[in-house]
Amino acid sequence: MAEPKPRRPLADSTAVHDQVYDSIRQALITGKIAPGVGVSLRSLAAELGVSPMPVRDAVRRLVAERALAINPANKRLSVPSLSAERLEQLELARQWIEPELAARAAPRADEALVRKLKAIDQDLEEALRVGDVDRYMVANHAFHFAIYERAGAEVLLAMAGGLWLQIGPFMRVVFGRVGTGSLPADRHAQAMDALKVRDAEGARRAIAADLSEGMDKMRAAVEAGAGLTVAPTGQTVITVS
Amino acid sequence: MAEPKPRRPLADSTAVHDQVYDSIRQALITGKIAPGVGVSLRSLAAELGVSPMPVRDAVRRLVAERALAINPANKRLSVPSLSAERLEQLELARQWIEPELAARAAPRADEALVRKLKAIDQDLEEALRVGDVDRYMVANHAFHFAIYERAGAEVLLAMAGGLWLQIGPFMRVVFGRVGTGSLPADRHAQAMDALKVRDAEGARRAIAADLSEGMDKMRAAVEAGAGLTVAPTGQTVITVS
DNA sequence: GACCTTGCATTGTGATCGCAATTATCGACT
DNA sequence: AGTCGATAATTGCGATCACAATGCAAGGTC
Q1: A90, A152, A156 ranked by CB distance to B93: nearest
Q2: Which member of B86, B155, B166 has the closest CB to residue A90?
Q3: Is B51 within 7 A of strand C by CB distance?
Q4: What are the residue boundaries of the HTH gntR-type domain, all occurrences included (chains A, B) (predicted)?
Q5: Do A61 and B60 touch (CB under 8 A)?
Q6: Which of B66, B75, B100 lies closest to A158 in CB terms?
């Protein structure tokens, strides 16, 4: 315990608990932590090479954003497993807020944004080709939020971020199962075209369609019974049947 | 400092940081803490008779829910002052999510719910008569969320709760200024009537109208210049002109 | 008298310790 | 050999301390 503290690099500045937050958030969005598995403050702290304190702070934020769940009896932490009802509500909320953000971003779009999106989309398609699910998840997130940030709607943006955080782990499981081959990147092309000419309604429709297709996949996976069964210990086994 | 620690009663069970959270949350919703004023962990801890530690946890949650803001430079805490853009986005989000919750609650409404709402509404009107703004705020919150909880939509309910938390402090300022005399409780009657016959669309319209009128007042107050001016120290003076 | 500097109080952050509760592990007994 | 019970380990929660940074205020200088 008298080690010189590895202290992982982790980006650059800001407070430690913010870096821890970003680390866990990325792990959740990209699905590096499977839904249902239990985590602990000390284990996360050890893994990140920090003291339990900043982890505790980061976990509080994530619990507040419902990206982590806390067993009311145990008081133990876990990644929430997604139920059909939860999925339905998250879908509804996303279908309302994300097209709205895209529509608001359209009038404020410029050439630089479109270029950035094009770069992200190329990376995304490359990830699809080589079947790198992690990279695809990161790129897809980057694509959507590059648009949403342009809307200049802080409150709505934060809400959208929270929704992705909640749906991220499950997306990863589904996409890892059905494969990424059939994912339609053409909706992204539609969105970029609409943004190029500052067509708000076009952007709204493109994002709505993109979401709709993605969520269809997830819903189909859930209804097909590819659910998550929670073992009595709290540990979760992902049944891909 | 060697005092025997007053340790405020504070509800009943659960962890200390949850009780602290509820206390601050209530204070924000009812507007006991004015927008823009700076708070500190230690001052809140002293006021609640607890150590700074659980306050720190509670504040993390509230910051994550955007009910408290943290100055990126200072890293100091404050109640966020509401801007016109923020208000517009919060209104949009509320106008979408709260009527939706009301509509979902309608088919699940029963006599007990209507009775409960009636009791709350009577208390609300009494508060209006005597001009007790705090009591009105509490009752109004209770009325809406008694309905929303019935929707059985956990995710949407949490989102609605977050929105109230963000808009609460400002509501209080506005209502405290324009007086509560002209507030239309008849929308509540409409909502109760719709719930009584399980009329989803009626409930949706009633809540939408209720929100619309309330937000109109707030928007008018903002545009009339009854804004909040932040002093250089971070302390805020409420200009009721 | 106005402005700058110096000192002190307060702030958030992180670390470490102790505690009670729960869980896991292993030994003992029937 | 199987089941039960006791011990040890882990977990989250709260308290306290240390520290760097910031804010505030008093006092000094021009």
Answers
A1: A156
A2: B155
A3: no
A4: 14-82
A5: yes
A6: B66
Kindly determine whether residue A89 and residue B154, on different chains, have CB atoms separated by under 8 Å: yes
Given an 8 Å threshold on Cβ–Cβ distance, is B60 in contact with A65?
no
CB B54 within 8 A of CB B17: yes
Structural domain includes residue B28: yes
A31 lies in the same domain as A106: no
CB atoms within 10 A of CB B77: 20
Write out the residue range of the structural domain in which residue A115 sits.
84-223
Do A211 and A140 sit in the same domain of this protein? Answer: yes
Contact A60 B65 (CB under 8 A): no
C-alpha distance from B85 to closest chain A C-alpha (Å): 8
Q: What pLDDT digit, counting tens, does each position of B45-91 carry?
A: 999 999 999 999 999 999 999 999 999 988 999 999 878 888 899 99
Burial state string for B10-33 with b = 16 or more CB within 10 A and e = fewer than 16: eeeeeebbbbbbebbbebbbbbeb
Q: How many domains does chain B have?
A: 2
What is the Cα A229 distance to its own chain's centre?
22
Interaxial angle between packed helices A133-149 and A111-130, expressed in degrees from 0 to 180 and rounded to the nearest 10: 160
Are B235 and B76 in contact, with CB atoms under 8 Å apart?
no
Residues in chain A: 241
Residue B1 in domain: no
Residues B123/B223, Cβ–Cβ less than 8 Å: no
Q: What is the DSSP letter of B79?
A: P
Q: Is A50 helix (H, G, I), strand (E, B) or coil?
A: coil
Q: pLDDT tens digits, chain A, 241 residues: what are they?
A: 333 334 344 344 589 999 999 999 988 877 788 888 899 999 999 999 999 999 999 999 999 999 999 999 889 999 998 788 888 999 999 999 999 999 999 999 999 999 999 999 999 999 888 888 888 888 999 999 999 999 999 999 999 999 999 988 778 777 766 555 555 558 999 999 999 999 999 999 999 999 998 888 888 877 765 544 433 333 333 332 2
Distance of CA B117 to the CA centre of its chain: 18
* Coil, helix or strand at residue A38: strand
In this structure, the protein residues whose CB atom falls closer than 7 angstroms to any atom of nucleic acid strand D are A 39-43, 52-53, 56, 70, 75-77; B 15-17, 50-54, 57, 73-74, 76, 233-235
Q: Based on the fold, state whether residues B68 and B112 are members of the same structural domain.
A: no
- Rounded Cα gap, residues A148 and A203, in angstroms: 11
Q: Which residues of A161-192 are buried (b: 16+ CB within 10 A; e: fewer)?
A: bbbbbbbbbbbbbbbbebebeebebebbebbb
Q: Is the CB of A53 under 7 A from strand C?
A: yes
